[in-house]
Amino acid sequence: MTFLSFEFYLFLPVFLVFYFLIPQKYRYIIIFLGSYYFYGFLNFKILYVMGLVTAISYFGGLLIYKYKTKKNLALFFALDVLVLVAFKYNCYNLSLPIGLSFIVFQSCTYLTDVYRNNIDAERNILRYGAFVAFFPTVLSGPIQKSRNLLPQIKNPKPFDSEEAKKGTILFIWGLFEKIIISNKLSYIVNTVYGNYENYNSAYYIIAAVGFSLYIYADFSSYSDMARGVAKLLGIDIGINFKNPYLSKSTSEFWNRWHISLNTWLIENVYIPLGGNRRGTLRKYINMLIVFFISGLWHGDKWHFVIWGVLNGIIVIMGQITKPLRTKVYQTLNVDESLQSIVFIKQVIVFVLITITWVPFRNGVKDSLYIIKNIVLFNPINFFDYEILNIAGTTAGTLILLFSILLFCKIQLMRQNEHEEFVRFSKQPMFIQCLCMALIITVSIFGICQASTDTASVNSQFMYFQF
Amino acid sequence: MKQYLNYFKFLGITLFLTFIIFEIIVIGILKYPKDTFHSSYQSLIQDKFRILEETNEPKIIIISGSSSAFGLDQKMLESKTGYKVANLGLHAGFGHLFHSELAKANINSGDIVLLGYEYNWIDGFNYINMDLAMSAIDSDIKMYKYIPRDKWVDCIGNLFHFAEKKNTYAGASGIYSRDAFDSVSGQLTMERDCSLEYQKENFEKVDISNVTISEDAVCYLKEFKEYIEKRGGMSTL
Q1: Most-buried pick from A59, A192, A355, B235 (CB within 10 A)?
Q2: In this model, does residue A114 exceed pLDDT 90?
Q3: Pick from A168, A235, A228, A431: which is nearest to B7 by CA?
Q4: pLDDT (average), residues B15-43
Q5: B153 inside 8 A of chain A by CB
Q6: Residues of B with Cβ-Cβ distance to A438 under 8 angstroms
């Protein structure tokens, strides 16, 4: 089941009724049952894998809690990761259960949290199972830290209408991001990249920028919907993105992008490797290893590894040249925090990240061809009226452009999400509901249209495959 | 309890407004401007459907493509058989599902349903050309209920394209227009400028030696036959 499947809209109300009907201390049972139903809805066999990962980390947690040795942690950590490796890298011709990377990484956080005394070992296996399989995040994260989620499952908050309202708004906005922005952009990207020999550099640039926005909208939409559903249960799962394309450096970008995975990699790879405590050179090597693993986490294809390493190199180069850049600003007597300078930095980061997304989306050979054509682009290629039909029709392209502007505006406003929510809540109830109703209506039309026109894209989110 | 009520108030009003906005947009696009495609050939289905609905005595219902619209003399058929004729034959591009579902509006005891499906319809049984169907039904909203439920999503999905088409439709004339037919009987009345001459080289050879019918088609036809018989009619393919 996914957040866009029809069944989910039957499942959720039933789940919520049961969840709030039973006493708070037993609600984890409903989360456990609901999550297993949600995850195994289309293929119950993947529940075996879920059960295996849960069992490994559950018993591992108990053992690590009792005998806090590095050996125990390494053993159960490795066992968990082994399950992922076996499926992900196709060791035994097994098909990858959806969201397995997220499940394994989440259960690994539990092992390290127990080892580092951040949390006591969970003795109730159903409660622990509810944590691993927690249905709002099970398919695509955000990867939860056990120290954050387990206590909330253990001691759920009573129903709070403001939190539930916030959750509903987040869910509806996520729906809009997915249906109207992500799906439509995906059509452009797939059309151009899928047949790149027939297009020119103008299309490559549009597709590259489109992919940057697409991957953000797609992943952010899932995270927003997941946060929304969790908030309905009174659970806060944290944010996964902080307007990454507003970053002024590539290092900052990676602190704002897929926050839960990057935090996981820092806590479980970078710091154990020594972090920045062992000198500058070692720090850079550690960073490169983290990016290499991040690439590998996305898949066993070379283009993912290249994407990871490329990002590592860009971030390291950024750090190496930082003193030099600061000196240049000082020499030229320019204030780095000036709006225009900040904007130029943001554009540079966006361009660099956009270029690195090319090998993320395409094979190595294709990427080289596309990047070469983007770098040596021919400006005359933009003087082509056909570009206006890139989203299927001219009207479709203009509507998409308008939708992207709206998306960017709202995402910018969300930098102060809580304040914006308070401001929104002060508006008359009718206006609040009308805004939500308009977004839902547009999304419904978007869903219906996707089932008929060429922009048809399935209801899967991109990060399901990882 | 107050917390629940507050939330349900928010959710309830939001869903209610969604329903209202959705309805306003759908009905607004379907209804206004009214009868935009009135002159079109496909909109003749409205007259044909009206005839079907109004004919309550035993009748022959014809489900077919344009060969029945242009090539059938209904009066002759009525006088020879003693049955009334409701000839739904029109544009083959609709997909036979459209004609077949419309026919269900008024099948009664003693009716004969002639299924004159075309060869190339056989595999695309679960198909309605929504663009054509919507411009045929136009603002005659009651006819939309004969579009199968599993096609409603396609129907809504095509809505803005339909609006775009409404905005640019220039009207139709000649033999492929509604004016070529009598609005009361649905019979072709306009003189054709020329008769088609069969020139062998202009037509592709159709191989019908190895024709198979898809599972969907078999399933639908069985269900349709059962439906007709349940209503007291009989069908023939």
Answers
A1: A192
A2: yes
A3: A168
A4: 95
A5: yes
A6: 21
Neighbour-count burial for A94-109, b at 16+ CB within 10 Å, e otherwise? eebbbbbbbbbbbbbb
Q: Do A445 and B157 touch (CB under 8 A)?
A: yes
Q: Give percent of chain A above pLDDT 90.
A: 84
Report residue A59: phi and psi, to 5°: -70, -35
By CB atoms closer than 10 A (0-12, 13-18, 19+), residue A194 is exposed
The C-alpha of B164 sits at a distance from chain A's nearest C-alpha, in angstroms, of 10
pLDDT digits (tens, 9 = 90+) for A233-270: 999 999 999 999 999 999 999 999 999 999 999 999 99
Closest-CA residue to A256 (of A265, A243, A269, A266): A243
* Closest CB to B157 among A160, A164, A452: A452
- Which whole number is the average pLDDT over A385-391? 91
Counting other chains too, the contacts that A401-408 makes at CB distance below 8 Å and 24 or more residues apart are A403/A180, A403/A181, A403/A184, A404/A181, A404/A185, A404/A213, A407/A176, A407/A177, A407/A180, A407/A181, A407/A217
The amino acid present at A215, given as its one-letter code, is I
Q: pLDDT band for A192, please (50, 70, 90 cuts).
A: very high
Q: What is the pLDDT of residues A279-334, one digit of tens each?
A: 999 999 999 999 999 999 888 889 999 999 999 999 999 999 999 999 999 999 99
**CB proximity B110 to A under 8 Å:** no
pTM, 2 dp: 0.89
Q: Which residues pair with B62 in a beta bridge?
A: B87, B114
Rounded CA-CA distance B145/B80 in Å is 34
Query: Which residue among B6, B20, B157 sits closest to A449, beta carbon to beta carbon?
Result: B157
**B18 burial via Cβ count (<10 Å: 0-12, 13-18, 19+):** buried
Q: How far is A176 from chain B (nearest CA, A)?
A: 14
The full 3-state SS of B30-86, as one line of letters, equals: HHCCCCCCCCECCCHHHHHHHHHHHCCCCEEEEEECHHHHHHCCHHHHHHHHCCEEE
B154 touching chain A per CB within 8 A = yes
